[in-house]
Every structure is written in structure tokens, then in C-alpha cells.
Amino acid sequence: MKQFQPVSFLLAIFAVIAIMAIGIFIAEQSMIGIIASIVALFIIIGIGFARKKRMREKGML
């Protein structure tokens, strides 16, 4: 079984929150909120992929 990684877990939770925020802002018809949530989602996912790449290079995964 793989070791629990709290940072990866938090990034996944933040990504889910950003996706939920997109839905909420669509319901509220707030274009600024939708765009901000999408940008936040891309940043969070980018951080997660960069972190995973660094961990693979170090041999931690």
C-alpha cells in the first residue's frame, strides 16, 4: 500500500473545491467568479503535476 501524502491530498481537495466553485458561480451568473475559479483550478492542477514530476525524478514515487 502506498504511503499517505497529505500535500497531495490537500491539493486534490482544493481542486474539488475549485470545481464546486465553478458550479456555484455558474448558478450565480458571475463571470468574474467563473474565470477566477477556472484559473485557480489550473494553478492547483499545475502545482500537483509539477510536484509529482519532482517526486518521480527524486525516486520518491
Automatic annotation (TrEMBL):
Name of a matching Pfam family: DUF5325
Key words of the record: Membrane, Transmembrane, Transmembrane helix
Domain of life of the source: Bacteria
Transmembrane segments: 7-26, 32-50
Name assigned to this protein: YlaF family protein
Originating species: Parageobacillus thermantarcticus
